[in-house]
């Protein structure tokens, strides 16, 4: 029961791909492959988050480029694992989000990928477009990963929280008795990455050392935290439409030192995660981090400082490396689709019911 999961997230850094084996209820991660975006593709994808000239054509071309990269990642996995394409049941490919508008007046989410091309290039069944069925059922279409967290990380006696710190940060609550819940807390690394690139030329602030060299600007943090998204009740999900550099610039006076802004952005991520936990999951004591932000030592130390009575570890100790949880989730979501089993959790997304997700392109 080999599946491939492919995730390219809101950080816009590249492609995470995994080969996994599901047999019955057991799961194993067999191989992984990471393919970075070249600067041209990265800039093009970032540009497609806003309207621009000839954007339909550009989006279609980027979808094709992405699909060729996804196919490279598939070949890399098959070679590493010495498995041939006939041995794979399906590829679950998230695609690259360029717009996310689940609100009732819009009701769509766009993940770029040419599923037909990927099926043609790999000769493997491809499942894509995981979000729109949930949105059609009045859900947010995100986050979807909590259903996978439930399968992999639940404990019969302990209330656990799983916190993904990617471009956006999202939280999953796995209580002992009540139903699973979760939502997007707000920006994870996205704003820090953009500010860091603009001021240092580095794509991200390694271990948060630049942020650590600055001071949190109290008035700025207070202003940022007053943004309505943070106090909105779940279900909720967000993205680059809301949290981009322009959003940040609208709060700056122009007199702030760049490293102090970075320190404040890091604190914003920490604070919005900690506030969400205090507001919605006050009794949960075990926290497990995944996503790239789990490697940011300054961020993790400040989060531990905010939540001193909770134990914070990475999902690695639960059996899945923090870097590969999302890609594994899309392999699992593909299996749900292939088996015609629902993949969404209405308690998370707000959908009116459970739905079989995804569009299938047969091999
Ligand atoms: N050592 C590190 N120190 C600081 N930040 C790091 C480190 N390693 C990774 N990161 C951060 O993690 C980001 C990548 O995270 P990840 O791959 O989880 O995001 P994503 O999957 O694209 O986002 P999302 O989950 O929102 O879709 C990088 O852009 C960087 O900001
Ligand atoms: C629209 C979209 O791509 N959302 C992503 C993003 O990245 C993290 C967070 O925001 C989450 O809601 C979601 O991704 C994961 C994989 C999810 O659906 O659970």
TrEMBL record:
Upper taxonomic lineage: Bacteria, Pseudomonadati, Pseudomonadota, Betaproteobacteria, Nitrosomonadales
Function: Catalyzes the specific phosphorylation of 1,6-anhydro-N-acetylmuramic acid (anhMurNAc) with the simultaneous cleavage of the 1,6-anhydro ring, generating MurNAc-6-P. Is required for the utilization of anhMurNAc either imported from the medium or derived from its own cell wall murein, and thus plays a role in cell wall recycling.
Database matches in InterPro entries: Anhydro_N_Ac-Mur_kinase, ATPase_NBD
EC number in record: 2.7.1.170
Protein name: Anhydro-N-acetylmuramic acid kinase
Record-level GO BP terms: 1,6-anhydro-N-acetyl-beta-muramic acid catabolic process; amino sugar metabolic process; peptidoglycan turnover
Stored PANTHER family: ANHYDRO-N-ACETYLMURAMIC ACID KINASE
Pathway(s) this gene product operates in, as recorded in its UniProt entry: Cell wall biogenesis; peptidoglycan recycling; Amino-sugar metabolism; 1,6-anhydro-N-acetylmuramate degradation
Gene for this chain: anmK
TM segment ranges: none
């Amino acid at each position: 029961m080999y599946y491939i999961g492919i995730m390219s997230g809101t950080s816009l850094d590249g492609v995470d791909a995994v080969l996994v084996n599901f047999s019955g209820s057991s799961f194993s991660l067999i191989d992984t492959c990471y393919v970075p975006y070249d600067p041209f593709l990265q800039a093009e994808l970032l540009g497609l988050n806003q309207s621009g000239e000839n954007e339909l054509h550009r989006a279609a071309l980027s979808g094709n480029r992405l699909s060729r990269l996804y196919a490279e990642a598939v070949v890399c996995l098959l070679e590493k694992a010495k498995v041939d394409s006939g041995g794979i049941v399906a590829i679950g490919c998230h695609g690259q989000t360029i717009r996310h508008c689940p609100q009732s007046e819009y009701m769509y989410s766009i993940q770029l990928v040419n599923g037909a091309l990927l099926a043609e290039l790999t000769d493997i069944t491809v499942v894509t477009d995981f979000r729109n069925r949930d949105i059609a059922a009045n859900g947010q279409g995100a986050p979807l990963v909590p259903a996978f967290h439930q399968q992999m990380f639940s404990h019969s006696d302990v209330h656990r929280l799983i916190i993904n710190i990617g471009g956006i940060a999202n939280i999953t609550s796995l209580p002992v008795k009540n139903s699973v819940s979760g939502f997007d807390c707000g920006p994870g690394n996205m704003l820090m990455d953009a500010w860091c690139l603009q001021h240092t030329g580095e794509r991200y602030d390694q271990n948060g050392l630049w942020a650590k060299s600055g001071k949190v600007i109290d008035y700025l943090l207070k202003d940022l935290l007053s943004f309505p998204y943070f106090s909105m009740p779940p279900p909720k999900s967000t993205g680059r439409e809301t949290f981009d550099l322009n959003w940040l610039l609208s709060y700056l006076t122009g007199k702030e030192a760049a490293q102090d802004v970075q320190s404040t952005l890091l604190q914003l991520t920490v604070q919005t995660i900690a506030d969400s936990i205090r507001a919605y999951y006050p009794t949960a004591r075990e926290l497990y981090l995944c996503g790239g932000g789990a490697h940011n030592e300054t961020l993790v130390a400040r989060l531990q400082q905010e939540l001193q009575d909770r134990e914070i570890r990475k999902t690695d100790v639960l059996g899945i490396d923090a870097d590969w949880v999302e890609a594994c989730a899309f392999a699992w979501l593909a299996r749900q689709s292939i088996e015609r089993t629902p993949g969404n959790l209405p308690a998370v997304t707000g959908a009116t019911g459970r739905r079989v997700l995804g569009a299938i392109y047969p091999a």
